[in-house]
Amino acid sequence: MAKRIDVSDLDIYYGNFKAVEGVNISIEPRSITALIGPSGCGKSTFLRSLNRMHEVIPGARVEGKVVIDGQDLYGAGVDPVDVRRQIGMVFQRPNPFPTMSIYDNVVAGVRLNSTKMKKSAMDDLVERSLKGANLWNEVKDRLNRPGSGLSGGQQQRLCIARAIAVEPEVLLMDEPCSALDPISTLAIEDLMTELKERFTIVIVTHNMQQAARVSTSTGFFNLNGVGQPGRLIEFNPTEKIFSNPEEKATEDYISGRFG
Amino acid sequence: MSTQTPLAPVGATSLGNSGPVREQRRLPRFAPLGLFLAGVAVGALLSALTGFSVALTVIYGVVLGSLFVYLVSRAVEGRRKAADRLVTSLVTTAFAIAMVPLVSLVYTVLDNGLPRLDGAFFTNSMYRVVGEGGGAYHAILGTVIITALATIISVPIGLLTAIYLTEYGTGRLKKAITFFVDVMTGIPSIVAGLFSYALFTLIFGVSVRMGVMGAVALSVLMIPVVVRSCEEVLKLVPNELREAAYALGVPKWRTVVKVVLRTAIAGLGTGITLSVARVIGETAPLLITVGLITGTNLNPFDGRMATLPVFAYYQLTQPGTATQAFLDRAWTAALVLIILVMALNVVARLITRFFAPKTGR
Ligand SMILES: Nc1ncnc2c1ncn2[C@@H]1O[C@H](COP(=O)(O)OP(=O)(O)OP(=O)(O)O)[C@@H](O)[C@H]1O
Ligand SMILES: [Mg+2]
């Protein structure tokens, strides 16, 4: 199911402001790719352009190519809705639907699209997804309680369960652990390692150890100055980035000699 | 353990005035109220010196009462607490003054309206009634029918406009719509009535009278209120929820219907109910479009209808021979109208209670 992503010469704009420039990257299927870099360098922006969530913002647009298994995401006639069905996303802040129960949150992708599904199949899906997100044991007795009644870390795992319930081929995660305690963070990292078997995962993180722990490849974004577009400085296997990076800027950033 | 400096219990430090926590001297619980009332009493005396008047009593009383409270509190409790007490008494006074017209109104309407709040009022029309007896059966139903029609016209238009403005609109068109909605909010109700009158006269010829004319006039007043309140509520729906839905591959229209509207439904229900309450008591536009009849007409597409506000107006301005009977009916009509509006407010609260997103474990 997992797919490879090839990005070539991608420029990303907010109106007239060029936020990201000239990204070339190849993301292998069944791998975890970490994106690191200083705040405001365009990691989130780049991530959102991979499933066409970027264009939801008024005035935002993209130039260049994003090809997933040979299909250009930005080609004419490609429906962004179909793209997002294949490429799921977990956001930085947990955002369960406040009006829905835990159960309904997990099957939101099915329900909101009015896909017909038997009750038993749906129960299965809920159990499978919650187990996949390492949340089943904590919530199995209160599936009908509101999802917003969970703790922050549980909510984040609920959002992951919701994202994997629609069986995407790629999973994008924008700082999924930034609001979590070390234990929940570990749970999510373990989860990512498991999910890697089935999905292609791209994760944005500010946590260098996390990138080193979970990812197979790492991309370092940087920008030259305020108002300048962000660029992908280096993209290499994680061991290489963290042991002997090619670029001076990468080494400075990783060793904390930044700015 | 032994290395720790022993901490004195908090109570101990506050007893002797030497520690960091100074004991606060406080006025007894009801002292401020007593002082204030004493001030009011002195105020009453003062105004009695110059020929007693309620207004002067209130003015003297509030000033002196606040002053007493402030001075005593300042002497006993210190400056900060005294300022707090002063502001408290001023704010409470302002609240009491604001309540006066409301209480007076409710009292007057109850006092005058209750005598005729009987079964006959709800079951009889004014058909062939020239003196006592009769009721507002026809007018109550007329108000309900016309307001319901106005709601049926306004809610789809208003809600869809609000959805357009928050979810889809950009640029010029959005600005223009917002501007015209603002303008519509300020339209005097009589103008709305004349608009509807002119519109139906154009289509059906002179001297046409229909319930639906009133409904159209009310919609003109109601639509901007619905748009405004729904727009505010829809704006409150966090963008993250929309993005969460998009990221699951849900098309925009489904996101709007199933996530945005569903999340906002409590607020939408409340807003719409309150906008109904806003127009249900309108008199002027109904006066010129729907008119009044003494009998019962429940067909809003044919002929005049009775409505509560217009009913009350005519009972008051054109009493027949039994003046008191007409006056009583006018008051009772006003009372029923207030009860209707209050019922709508209760409904609005219930909607909020039942549909608001539930939290808790
Ligand atoms: N909605 C937006 N409209 C206009 N400019 C934006 C918008 N979102 C982000 N930007 C700009 O795009 C640039 C990149 O932002 P982005 O959110 O991608 O940074 P980031 O690398 O994710 O930072 P962080 O690590 O703090 O999350 C920044 O200069 C930011 O100001
Ligand atoms: Mg970001």
Count of β-strands of chain B: 0
Helix and strand element order of chain A: EEEHEEHEHHHHHEHEHEEHH
Main structural class of chain B: mainly alpha
SS field, number of helical segments of chain A: 11
Portion in beta strands of chain B = under 5%
State the low-pLDDT regions of chain B, or none: 1-16
The SSE string of chain B, one letter per element, is HHHHHHHHHHHHHH
Share of residues in helices of chain A: 25-40%
Profile the largest sheet of chain B.
none
Helix proportion range of chain B: over 70%
Low-confidence stretches of chain A: none
In short:
Chain B: The chain crosses the membrane at residues 30-48, 54-73, 85-110, 136-165, 177-200, 206-227, 259-280, 330-351. The complex is a heterodimer of chains A (259) and B (361). Chain A is an alpha/beta fold and 259 residues long.
Overview of this protein structure:
The complex is a heterodimer of chains A (259) and B (361). Chain A has a domain of 176 residues: Rossmann fold (3-Layer(aba) Sandwich). The longest helix of chain A has 14 residues. Chain A has 259 residues and is an alpha/beta fold. In chain A, helix 5 crosses helix 7. Chain A is built from eleven helices and ten strands. Helices cover 35% and strands 25% of the residues of chain A. Chain B starts with 9 loop residues before the first helix and ends in a 6-residue tail after the last helix. With 361 residues, chain B is mostly helical. Chains A and B meet through helix 2, helix 4 and helix 7 of A and helix 10 and helix 11 of B. Adenosine-5'-triphosphate binds next to strand 2 and helix 1 of chain A. Magnesium ion (MG) binds next to helix 1 of chain A.
